[in-house]
Amino acid sequence: MRSKKPAAADLLPLTPAVFHILLTLCDSGKHGYAIMREVESRSAGRIRIGPGTLYRSIQKMLDDGLVTETAERPDTDNDDERRRYYEMTEFGRAVAAAEAQRLAEIVREAQARKLLPKLRST
Amino acid sequence: MRRWIRISHRIYQVLQRVYPAEFREIYGEEMSRAFAEGCEKSRQRGLVKLARFFLTVLSDWSLTAALEHLDRLRQDVRYSIAALARSKVFALTAIICLSLGIGVSSTLFTTAGTLLSRPLPITDPDKVVMFRASDGHDIRYPDYLRYRDSNQTFTGLSGWFPSPVSFGQGEKSEIVVAEIVTGNYFDVLGVHAALGRTFLPEEDQRPDTHPVVVLSDMLWKQRFDSDPQVVGRTVMLNGRPFVVIGVMPPSFTGSTYLLKVQLWSPIAMSGTLNWGGGPLDQLQVMVLGRLKPTMPIEKAAADVNRLHTVIAGEQRERRQTLSTFSLFRPNGVVVTSTRRRIENVTIVLMVVVGMILVIASSNVGSLLLARAVARQQEIAVRMAVGASRPRLIRQLLTESLVLSSGSALGGLLMTAWLTRVLSTYQVPIPGPYVPFAEFNVDWRSVVFASVLALFTGLVFGMAPAWRASRVDLAPALKIGAPASGTSYQRARLRNALIVTQVALSFVLLVASGLFVRSMLFAKRTDPGFEVRNIVLASVNVGLQGYTLPRGLEFYRQIKERLLALPGVRTVSAGRPLPLSGSDGRAALIVEGSGSEQPVTVAAAGADLDYFDALGIPILRGRAFDATDTHNAPPVVVISESMERKLFPGADAVGQRLRTIGRQPQYLEIIGIARDVDFGALGEDPQPRVYDTLQQTYSPTQSLIIATSSDPDVIRDLVSREVHALDPNLPVEVKTMQEYLAYSLWPARIGAIVLGSTGVLAVLLACVGIYGVMAYSVGQRTREFGTRMAIGARKIDIIRLVVADGMRLALVGLGLGMVSAIAVLPATSSLLYGTKPMDPLTFLTVPVLLLAVTFLANYIPARRATTVDPVIALRSE
User: Fold this and answer.
1) Nearest to A53 among B19, B26, B64 (CB)
2) Residues linked to residue B436 through DSSP beta bridges, in sequence order
3) What pTM did the predictor assign?
4) How far is B456 from chain A (nearest CA, A)?
5) 3-state helix/strand/coil string of B171-186
6) Which of B189, B697, B841, B873 has a 20 to 30 Å separation from B261 between CA atoms?
7) Chain B contact for A43, CB < 8 A?
8) Nearest to residue B378, comparing CAs of B247, B268, B483, B249?
9) How far apart are CA B105 and CA B109, in angstroms?
């Protein structure tokens, strides 16, 4: 555990694995395999996180205060008591938002240079 | 399928063991579960998805396990640096000690490695090989031509030999080392001129037709000021004009490492350049060749030996044994005798340097051990909050490795400095053969120092780390708990390290004492001839192409001129001079002895007044005089040891010796001279025969000028007189004292190197002992305070501490004594006038060592007595 909590900007840029885990935890806490599964399905199989990467990232995110272990167990069916669930902290949400903002700025730059088409606002 | 998934799950659990234990304990079960669920879900989607899942997990495992370990290592290194920063004195002491050990080791590795394995700076040096005959002889030039034209395994073969050459340009002339080479020499080596060109084929076809020369970069810079127009200029070699055709690049200095080769000329010019060498068909050359691509060296050697058998058979020479050829890569020093000497010295130095390294490492080991005792509580706390023993050991070992990494850097800096000093050091060898060696720290030195640092860090850090982690938690966690510095096993290890250091220091100090005494003896020793008030002038008129009559006339005139100089008492000449490093040999039969078996003795040439000039008494008979002319019967003077050997109990004066060969000569012994040190200082008397230069003329003579005044006054006048007769004749003038510096050099160098290592060893051992004692005393401060509070005097405390330390020193001395007696007899051939079991040295060194170890114990003991007993008791 770090003695002094870093600022959100200090942690940017996030690794793709960490950002995807945070995205997965936006709505609710999940256990490890559920995170792996959701990342894979959200990216249509393009991003696969192995167990080693997942838990190394979780370890670092716990140290940085981006996530915390939670006693809440959303998925009660087929639940295993030994499973550990993780949820995003407020700080984690702020960091994820900062990273999303950073990526959005990069996308805007790419659109300005016509590398990406501009999306029509609805 | 389910069975396969179960097997793969078990395999994954085994693979997890690669992760660090702490990570595994927290996340291992979840990772296994995630793997199992992933397997099941992928299996439901088909075999391809399952295979892809396995691949993803496998690559993920290999990457993340390594990263996790790296993270741990980074943490350990950061923690170690922080811990060492809090103990700066300890860290600095340890790093300096180990740097010294690694520095001397790395220096030896770099210098010996360069001397023994430096490849030639040419294209593809692995493809170039040299011939070596088992009988040690070089190859006759006509035989070389046969090998060159008939072999099937080389793209080219070249013959060459080094030779001193008189190089003149304007008024300045000097003797330089040249390589006389076949025309294809540079092509075979694959080197090109940096300026101009190398030899054309036609320049090496017919003798004496193309006087051309290629210069070295050094000669071009020193004698031509790097003139870019040097090509086409004329220089005088041995009195004849040669045209400069090219300059070699700075990296190329010829094929004979250690010789400063200054120029190259074709072998067709050897008649001019190699006086006394005879015509081409009698020349002996060394041979090197470039192997054909993919040609193995063994096949080439077999082809060469096949040709050798054919050639030897055709020549019908009846040899008792047919020599064989081996091929070797010309890395480092190629002259076999020099190489062997370097190898022998390297072995001795490896032992010495190894001992220094062990002392330095033991030093650091014992300091680490003492420090671990002081950190007991810290270690206990870490174990109490969950750190495993392997984790602690790893962290402590990392600390040791951080220290040794710093030492590797320090050691390399020391190596860089020492190799620079050695590169500029001039060995005082007489004549133009100036050893030249450039030592550089390269990637090999860095790898060596790093591996050594890793090894010493692990070996000497492991035991202290192991011991430190074996701490009893409960007593150690108590606030104010005294460190269990007297734990039996810990003390045993510490004591073993101290005893080792003292024992090794003793051996090195005795060795250094022996070599210092040897040097002092050599300096004081009487070689048997006059060393003061003698000036020597070496000339070689053969290099200027002097004929016999011209040479005789030159030496007659120069002696007359020198005798006329103020203060000159006698002028004579000799060849070679005593202690010059070279010696002649003669095989003689004693007439009338009844035996036709020749005896080989040392031989030297001596002119009129030789014995008088050098102060060598003629014990019986007479020295050479004016009647011993070229037309008179040949006469010799022999040494007293030769008379004892060949004429035991009889008077040799008037007896005759006979030379061997087709036209034997009969030599009358006219005088017996006292034995002198001719080959080496302090040598056993050698049977020696002197003939007179009046009857056996030599174009190379060393003029011996005996003066009654300061020889430094005469030396410049000598050069002036020589150049008055021939301005282009190079002459080397030295006083006898300067000349003897070469013969004293081995003793002096031995004393400097061994003396330094002895002093270094003692310093290191003392630092180690002091450090350990200081820590140990620091841990017992409360105990001493308590003792003093209940009546112990300061002297009692000091006695207690010093007695502990001196007991160990005595044990170390005893072991050192036994080791010295076992090991030092091997140095007897390197010592002058001193035996390895020299009583004075063996008495002095223990006293000295005990004195310094006493100080190393006394100082911390004294500091222990300054503790205030009240303060000590208050902390209970």
Assistant:
1) B64
2) B258
3) 0.79
4) 34
5) CEEEEEEEEEECCCHH
6) B697
7) no
8) B483
9) 6
